[in-house]
């Protein structure tokens, strides 16, 4: 018997994971990029930005190489 784990098995898992990532961002833990928007700096996780292509696309290749990204 093989069980497949699906989102239905852990309905709140996505929220727990996003909350933990946000907590790490707020504590500047594991952040690896700084986004600059209108002179304001925001620390972020590249992996989270990469998962959201709408935010990652404007930076192009530079976001994957440089720790700063001006938007």
Entry keywords:
alpha+beta, Zinc finger protein 131, single chain, Potassium Channel Kv1.1, Chain A, 4 helices, 71 residues, elongated
Describe this structure in words.
The protein is α+β, with helices and mostly antiparallel strands. The chain has a domain at 30-71: Potassium Channel Kv1.1, Chain A. The chain contains 4 helices and 3 strands; from the N terminus they run αββαααβ. It has helices spanning 13-26, 46-51, 53-56, 62-65; strands spanning 33-37, 40-44, 68-70. It has a 3-stranded mixed beta sheet with strand order 2-1-3. A hairpin with a 2-residue loop joins β1 (33-37) and β2. The radius of gyration is 15 Å and the shape is elongated. The termini are far apart. It holds the Pfam family BTB.
Helix content: 25-40%
Major sheet: 3 strands, mixed
Question: How many β-strand stretches?
Answer: 3
CATH superfamily of the domain at 30-71: Potassium Channel Kv1.1, Chain A
The CATH architecture of the domain at 30-71 is: 2-Layer Sandwich
* CATH topology category name of the domain at 30-71: Potassium Channel Kv1.1, Chain A
How much of the sequence is in beta strands? Answer: 15-25%
Outline the low-pLDDT stretches.
none
Mean pLDDT: 76
Overall SS class:
alpha+beta
SSE order: HEEHHHE
- Order of the strands making up the biggest sheet: 2-1-3
Organism: Astyanax mexicanus (Blind cave fish)
InterPro entries: BTB/POZ_dom, SKP1/BTB/POZ_sf, ZnFinger_BTB_dom_contain
GO molecular function: DNA-binding transcription factor activity, RNA polymerase II-specific; RNA polymerase II cis-regulatory region sequence-specific DNA binding
Protein name: Zinc finger protein 131
């Amino acid at each position: 018997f093989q069980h497949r784990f699906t989102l239905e098995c852990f309905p709140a898992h996505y929220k727990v994971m996003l909350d933990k990532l946000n907590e790490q961002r707020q504590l500047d833990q594991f952040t690896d990029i700084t986004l600059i928007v209108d002179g304001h700096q925001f620390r972020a996780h590249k992996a989270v930005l990469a998962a959201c292509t709408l935010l990652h696309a404007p930076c192009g290749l530079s976001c994957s190489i440089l720790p700063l990204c001006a938007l």
